[in-house]
Structures are given as C-alpha cells and as structure tokens.
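RESIDUES AND SHAPES:
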Amino acid sequence: MGAAQHSAVATLAPKDLGGLAFGMLATVQSLGNLAASGVVGILWSVISATAAFLHLTAWMALALAGLLVAGRRRQQ
C-alpha cells in the first residue's frame, strides 16, 4: 500500500508542494497506524476477529473512494 500512496501523492500534489505533501502523508500514516492498532485490537478482543477485519475493509474502501474522487477532480 505504501508504494500506491506515494505514487498518488506524487501524481496529485502540486509540484511546488511535493515535500510538504510527503511530510503530511507520513504524519497521517503514523497517526492512522496508531489509531487503527488500538481500535482493531479492541474490536478483536471485545467482539471478534471478523469484526476487526470488516472494520479495516470498510476503511480501505473509503480510502479508495476518496482517491478516485481526488483523481477525477485533478483531471477536470
């Protein structure tokens, strides 16, 4: 996933803001990893492993939808 995210940032970010965009990507990734680990750990422990995986699947689908919308806006 990391390569796809870096490619998306390189493609979608304005060239003069590329460094800032990659810094923001790293920040969001690290905070997201921390939050996701906590939430998924709780879901896994309290509900089930299936609930944890469904939660992650929903977030990945949402991220994909956002990326597709951003790509379409860039093309316009």
In short: The longest helix spans residues 18-46.
